[in-house]
Amino acid sequence: MAAQSPLDAYSQIVTGVAAELTPKVASLRVSQAARPGESLGSAVVYTGDGFLLTNAHVVGRATGGTALFSDGTSAPFTVVGSDPLSDLAVLRAGGSAPPPAELGEADELKVGQLVVAVGSPLGLAGSVTAGVVSALGRSLPTRSGAAVRLIEDVIQTDASLNPGNSGGALADARARVVGINTAVAGIGLGLAVPINATTRKIISTLMQDGRVRRAFLGIVSAPTPLPSWLRQRVASKDGLRVADLVSGGPAERAGLRRGDVLVAAAGKPVTTAQDLQRLMFAEAIGRPLEITVLRNGALVDVIAMPQELAAA
Questions:
Q1: What number of other Cβ atoms are within 10 A of residue 115's Cβ?
Q2: Is 82 helix (H, G, I), strand (E, B) or coil?
Q3: 244 labelled catalytic
Q4: Residue 217 dihedral angles phi and psi, to the nearest 5°
Q5: Measured between alpha carbons, how far is 47 from 34 in angstroms, rounded to an integer?
Q6: What are the backbone angles phi and psi of residue 27, rounded to the nearest 5°?
Q7: pTM score, two decimals?
């Protein structure tokens, strides 16, 4: 028997992922007065009882619409919760829905790893593209009214995203959903919101409460290497340098200064902006937060009181 060519193996992986996920990715027709009946994107079946995942920008301010599946069936859905600052939304479909997609773990992805984007744009099921993870750790600015946030650790891939693929699945070679496709970053490049511990918490909160309450400190930061003497002490190579502070914000009131390097918060190392954002959920609002910073060659402890990020 002739040896299987690499192209055959690659094709089998992509077709296998497509066969597994296409029935579990719906096309959305969102009920909006401004654009009645228009299909704005895709959604991934998240649970066996009809919860779907999509992008917040896909549903906008809509309260419901219709989900169309690849087998020709459709179901009305309601918007359970939407979080523009992570660009995630949870929907609930009425009636029957396909079995849920299996979720993976985006934090385990490697640059160069094969990924497959599956969407259902314009009511035409099975839009499939394949490529590799071209970069990790990218940041995607999102806005909700006056509030601006960076979605950290966004997945960048060269699997092209077609119009209407927003809200669809980005999957690994085992058809596990590792991201929700969100934006086209340029010609031949797409971005996806990762499925990881942080976004799972956001999804769970949306399912329970319909919205995500967040705390904020008012820090603009960037990763920076720690001096060698400190690396061994805190078991970390990097910290977060304070580039700017929101005037009158919790961090400024606590005494943090531009140029400080955040080393730890709540007793845990802080090496990326996501490490800090993981702490900024509802339970942090109005509670003392101990922060250790490197200032003028010495470690300094400050106590900040995160406040609630005002809704748009």
A1: 25
A2: strand
A3: no
A4: -105, -30
A5: 30
A6: -90, 135
A7: 0.78
Going by the DSSP 8-state scheme, the letter that residue 94 receives in this structure is S
**Annotation says 74 is catalytic:** no
Q: Which helix (H) or strand (E) holds 112?
A: none
Residues 128 and 117 sit within 8 Å (Cβ to Cβ): yes
Domain boundaries, the chain: 1-212, 215-308
Tell me which CATH code domain 1-212 carries.
2.40.10.120
Q: Which of 87, 153, 260, 275 is catalytic?
A: 87
pLDDT one-digit tens code per residue, 31-58: 765 555 565 789 999 999 999 999 998 9
Q: Where are the alpha helices (DSSP H) in the chain?
A: 6-21, 56-59, 197-209, 228-234, 250-254, 273-277
Q: Give the list of residues 6+ apart from residue 187 with CB closer than 8 angstroms, or none.
A: none
Give the C-alpha separation, 94 to 66, whole Å.
9
Alpha-carbon distance of 179 to 136, in angstroms, equals 12
Give me the catalytic one of 57, 127, 134, 172.
57
How many residues appear in the chain?
A: 312
CATH, domain 215-308, list 3.40.1180.10, 3.40.50.970, 2.30.42.10, 1.10.10.10: 2.30.42.10
Which residue of the set 166, 221, 260, 275 is catalytic?
166
pLDDT tens for 47-90 read 999 999 999 989 988 999 999 998 889 999 999 999 887 889 99
Tell me how many degrees the CA angle 306-261-268 measures, rounded to the nearest 5. 60
- The whole-angstrom distance between residue 277's C-alpha and the CA centroid of its chain comes to 12
Told to judge if 228 belongs to the known catalytic residues of this protein, a careful annotator would answer: no
